[in-house]
Amino acid sequence: MIANIDKTNSLTKCIVYFNDGNVHTFYSLDKKHKNSKQDKALGMRRLDKMLTGTFKAKFETAIIYDNELNGAELAKYKRGVRVN
Amino acid sequence: MHLNKLTMSKTMRLPRHTFDFSKLFMATKSFIDSHNESQIELKSKLNANHRATAEMITRLYAKQLNNALALGDSLEELPGFRTYNSSMATLKGCTVRTIMNHKKRLKSAGFITAEINHGAMGVELLISEDVFSLGKQTQNYDFSESKKSIENIKNRGEVKNFHPLVHVQQEQKNINSSVDNKERRLTTPPDDVTFGTGTKQEHHRNTSGSTNKKNRKTKGGAEILRQNQETSGSIDSETGATTNTLVSASSKFGNPGIKPKVTRQSDTPDMSFLLGLVQQFWFYAKNILYPEMILSDVENEQILNLIRISVYKNFKHRGKGTIKDYKDSQKIFEKRIDMVAKWLDRSPHRWIPVPEVYFNPNNDRNGFNKTYKWYVKQEALKAAVRNDLILQKARKEWEDYGKGNGRYKQKSRLQLFEIQKKRISQIKDENLNREYHNLIHKYLQIQHLK
């Protein structure tokens, strides 16, 4: 059990624009266990896994941002493929 | 009314106590003299060195007390002398152990009455009341006079705020200084102005480095050189580790070993060079193994860290390898990447994991580190093939020589042997050398039987 799972603690977030018109924001889980140090690359890898696995062919566009106000764009996916 | 009060306070003379250095030194001298007179044994007497340490303590302690008085402390009870053994040792130009020995002698003599250890905050020495006491050695000090004398000091704006432990000796030694030391030592800083110690800035005198630092550097260099001479040839960075294993592997196939190398300080690579190697390696590996992969800066950084730890072993033997060694090992790493690429090309069913798994130091199953065995095996095979070709050539030459044909038909048997031996010794492979000798013996036996 990873303590304090909270979207405010996440380092990155992913906004997914689904084919059916829905838009959802997913927040990364950046820890391996509750006492570990936050790992941004790990969180991004998990979001990548979600986009290229679970949601493959279900979304039009997905963008990963830094989880802060006006956060920088880190990665962009189009129809299940990473483009940037 | 208020104005009157202010003018009154300005004109009022405040009596102030300071410790007079001359009285204190006299008291120290008389204390030590009387102690020496009372002692019969030479061992228990205080010698000139102990006397010097005692005088140093007196001087510094008086300085501290005077500073405290200048800052407005009432000093109803005398505080101890706060210092560090190491700073006293530096000041005196001896080791800490000497200072400790001197303190022990001064304690037994009664000059130091007690010592309180404050750990990282240094030590506190309580000095005998015969030397330091508020009533005996203090004198009244005219505050307004001191203010006047401060104004007379040249360049009073450009001052350094030396630590009291450091600057006292410098002041005394610096007889060429244009600053009037006598006047400065008598004055104390006024309460409302931060005046420092009143030492003039002397940039032209402070350009050379510390002698201690120089000594330490030369010692370090000598130590490094000595270590290199002792561990000659054991180059053991990641490169070194690779080379060593390769040497041991190749010695199986007859390599007599590499000549010992002495690492020079100038050849030792710095961290920026080594990190550059990591980046170069990742650039090469990404282009060959993961050409279509898009990675963000964060992911790249993580992979570089993993490569540094798993492939380069975190440069834990950084001081032992030279730049050339690292460049050689870089070539080996690139060869290993090429081998992986070739292995992948052979079948479409073959795959390697994503970079963060492939270069993970904990990946024993399908990580990059496993390719080292491939490399050793390949190199060993190459060496074996090369040896076979060389021996084949040598056998052919002997056969041709026996028939009176070939390139060396005009030479004697000894000359042919020496030519071949010279050629083989250039390869520096012990196994090859041994096999060549076997070949010669066999050839001679056959000739003898004929």
UniProtKB/TrEMBL annotation, chain A:
| Domain of life, per lineage | Bacteria
Its recorded name reads Uncharacterized protein
Source species: Aquimarina aggregata
TrEMBL record, chain B:
Spans of biased composition, class Polar residues?
226-240
Q: Which domain of life is it from?
A: Bacteria
The ranges of region (Disordered) come to 174-240
Protein name as catalogued:
Uncharacterized protein
